Amino acid sequence: MSQSLNSAIAVIGIDIGKNSFHVVGLDDRGAIVLRQKWSRGQIEVRLANMPPCLIGMEACVGAHHLSRKLQAFGHEARLMPAKYVRPYSKGQKNDFRDAEAIAEAVQRPTMKFVATKTAEQLDLQAMHRVRERLVSQRTGIINQIRAFLLERGMPVRQGLRFLRAELPRILATPPDVLSARMVQVISDLAEDWRRLDHRIDHLSNEITLLARQDTGCERLMSVPGIGSIISSAMVAAIGTGDAFTKGRDFAAWLGLVPKQISTGDRTILGKISKRGNRYLRVLFVQAAWVVLIKPMSWERHGLKHWIEAAKKRLHRNVLAIALANKLARIAWAVLAGSRTFEANKLQAA
């Protein structure tokens, strides 16, 4: 590209692909001055030789890596959720139209941006995603074993530990009750279960070790119900929490707030919106249940008055969601404020 063309470009929108990138550049007036398709090998070289400008991309696979590279070149790289870019697309869908929509969207002052993740955050996030998949596979195996046994009239008490304790007796069942073929099937499933347990424990220990070495995770673990898994998942997802201005925004991003359908003078609040990071939302709800089943700790954590007042007017499931919302807001304040949780301040509030 010519030097004059490079200097005319003020904003660039990049539609990221596996092997090719569609690039649209706009000048100060918003007119298209660049419309090209670059290969993966060309994208960094060409942008490294351009004057610093605003570059927008959708937050997708590979976007965080490219964003860090472009920031190192002096560009202002911003990532956006794909669903917020879609309204700026005009006409039929193609990659150049998508890049143009990205270039339009990145200039909006009200656009919500995604913070660029560091390599360490992505490593931690990858570990959590692998662990989540392994836990899901283990749950599937346990449910399959239960279903096979129930088909033979052998129900087992609900709970992972009860099935594990019953397995030796089940595998020793006489052939007239459970066929040798089915015993072999269940034995193979039990072996798969043991292998998954080993991998999950190994990943959990590694995550715990990393969490103890991170100051942000250490602070988060001072919050009631939050341990190494939740704290590291939160740091992997939002870093220091700079993308949010207050705890309410973080709770809303997690989908722990009512879905609002309002018009005119009517304000209608429905079920929780379930937007954002599903994995982190589930973890915070689990943390809330851990706090709720330990009433002896409520006073120590400064939550006794709030929980007892909420119990009088809320169903226990709604109470768990409300407490998860509260814990998420506390966790954001602890992380963003670089301080540990203090129960006396919560009681004073």
UniProtKB/TrEMBL annotation:
<dbReference type="Pfam" id="PF01548">
    <property type="entry name" value="DEDD_Tnp_IS110"/>
</dbReference>
<dbReference type="GO" id="GO:0006313">
    <property type="term" value="P:DNA transposition"/>
</dbReference>
<feature type="domain" description="Transposase IS110-like N-terminal">
    <location>
        <begin position="12"/>
        <end position="150"/>
    </location>
</feature>
<dbReference type="InterPro" id="IPR047650">
    <property type="entry name" value="Transpos_IS110"/>
</dbReference>
<dbReference type="GO" id="GO:0004803">
    <property type="term" value="F:transposase activity"/>
</dbReference>
<dbReference type="InterPro" id="IPR002525">
    <property type="entry name" value="Transp_IS110-like_N"/>
</dbReference>
<dbReference type="GO" id="GO:0003677">
    <property type="term" value="F:DNA binding"/>
</dbReference>
<dbReference type="InterPro" id="IPR003346">
    <property type="entry name" value="Transposase_20"/>
</dbReference>
<protein>
    <submittedName>
        <fullName>IS110 family transposase</fullName>
    </submittedName>
</protein>
<dbReference type="Pfam" id="PF02371">
    <property type="entry name" value="Transposase_20"/>
</dbReference>
<feature type="domain" description="Transposase IS116/IS110/IS902 C-terminal">
    <location>
        <begin position="217"/>
        <end position="292"/>
    </location>
</feature>
